[in-house]
What does this fold into?
Amino acid sequence: MKLSKKGEYALRSLINLGIAVEVKRALVQVSELADNEQIPIKFLEQIMQALKEAGLVTSVRGKFGGYRLAKPAREITIGQVVRLIDGPLAPIGCVSQSAYEKCTCPDEAHCGLRMLMLDVRNAIAGILDRYTLADVVEITLRKLRRDSLPLPFSVEADAAASSARLARQLSRRSAHARLDESEGVLHQILGEYSI
It folds into this structure.
């Protein structure tokens, strides 16, 4: 089992929606999720649609719309999300519980490789099915608080994001002003040497 980018982005987005619940944020826009996790927005929109169709998130349309968890984070297991996005957890089809495929082995019942891969599948499933979204959100929040960082989607984080956006805008304006000034000087110099 290898977690795809799609699976990773789905989990990171769900964790952020879980954090939003904890900081009393009703909805989070897909653009905010994309910005916060540096995920391509068009790709994230497709992922959010899949999560919505699976009943893990709901959405509200409109200018002030966005996404929220459709059920409590403690009812969503990490394994459930990984299976939804990336398919079975089994490394080979003959040990999958949800998508069994007969292998090419002539004696499946006595195949050592199958027995080993069954243990691998069971270990992966045991871990991913034991942890809920709430567990991961709790760990994330604990570490953010420990390091005195603003919690995503909180009032403090929104203020910090607004300040960062303003700083970027001012920086771009300053760069454009310097470029305009340089062009003026260049035109002046070239004008002096024209025939």
